[in-house]
Write a structure and sequence with these properties.
globular; alpha+beta; Cyclic Phosphodiesterase, Chain: A
């Protein structure tokens, strides 16, 4: 069995995913920061065997439906994985998805859930992050449907090695 460092992501519907991916690439190009696929992390930063993790992904997907997420505003932090991001309105359905993922992966000590959609990962000074964030021209708040659950190999030593291992479309009720 192949053990990997993994994360479980909700993925936006295809039109929004393309728009967010283009925005992420544009922001990354300004200061040569990493590019990545648009997502909302559900649980992450843990090791699992690939085949077991894929089975768990199927179990999780079978219990979830597409989730409408409200992106409220653009924020910046002095945190690598939340450099620039869309804040997400807290909804019980998101917390339910998180708690279900924690249960499926038997991760009772998982990190606190802070739903957001990252737009940049960087160690840039906060002032530069704010300048970049000010160039984002979207009407917020915005509702986006997240209709896929994905399992990613997220080697924390190099984002260029991140790859999707499996994905399942979420089906309404």
């Amino acid at each position: 069995m192949n053990q990997l460092h993994v994360s479980v992501w909700l993925r936006p519907e295809p039109v929004a995913a393309q728009m967010f991916d283009e925005l992420i690439r544009r922001l990354a190009a300004v200061h040569d920061t990493p590019s990545f696929s648009a997502h909302l992390s559900v649980v992450g930063d843990f090791d699992d065997h690939e085949d077991v993790a894929l089975e768990r992904l199927v179990r999780l997907a079978d219990k979830l439906q597409p989730i409408d997420v409200e992106l409220t505003d653009v924020r910046c932090e002095d945190v690598f994985y939340r450099s620039i991001y869309f804040a997400v309105a807290p909804k019980p359905v998101l917390m339910d998805a998180y708690q279900l993922a924690v249960k499926v992966w038997s991760r009772p000590g998982a990190h606190a859930f802070f739903p957001h959609v990252s737009l940049q990962y960087s160690r840039l000074p906060l002032l530069l992050k704010r300048e970049l964030a000010s160039t984002i021209d979207l009407d917020l708040p915005m509702r986006v449907q997240f209709d896929r659950i994905s399992l990613w190999c997220t080697d924390m030593s190099d984002l260029r090695l991140w790859r999707e291992i499996g994905s399942r479309k979420l089906v309404a009720g």
